[in-house]
Amino acid sequence: MNMREFSSLVGLSSHTLRYYEKIGLLKNVQRNSSGHRAYTSKDLTWIIFVKRLKETAMPLDNILVYASLRELGSESLSQRQKLLELHQETLKVHIAQQEKHMAALEEKINIYKCGKVR
Question: Which SMART domains match (predicted)?
């Protein structure tokens, strides 16, 4: 698929996709006979995963480390697992904090609903 189709499908601008290529996050993008980018289903799967990591607040530097490890193939499986497990722990802490914030907001909203404003 071309840049416009891919961009629309993954919800990233063409500028972002070119930037990801530039920094090595998106590698070996194929080109058609005209020299235009031709994205594959493999690129789609990878970018969806990258977006998930970003949406869960993994720093771009860590995503780049993961991408570098991925390039090494199966010899880096344990390192990739470790990186993802560390991110998982960070994400769990973040979710717990957000749940506390939600509870505090709900408590305040209930105070307003009951008319017991302080």
Answer: HTH_MERR (SM00422)
User: Which are the contacts of 111, defined by CB distance < 8 A and separation ≥ 6?
Assistant: 117, 118
Classify residue 82: in a domain, yes or no.
Answer: no
Q: How far, in Å, CA of 26 to CA of 61, rounded? A: 14
Question: What does the pLDDT look like over 12-46, one tens digit per residue?
Answer: 999 999 999 999 999 999 999 999 999 999 999 99
Q: What is the CATH number of the domain that holds 38?
A: 1.10.1660.10
Asked, for residue 8, whether it belongs to a domain, the answer is yes
For residue 117, what pLDDT is reported? 67
pLDDT band for position 118 (cuts 50, 70, 90): low
Tokens for 74? Answer: 């199966």
Confidence at residue 98, expressed as pLDDT on a 0 to 100 scale: 97
Tally the domains of the chain: 1
pTM: 0.85
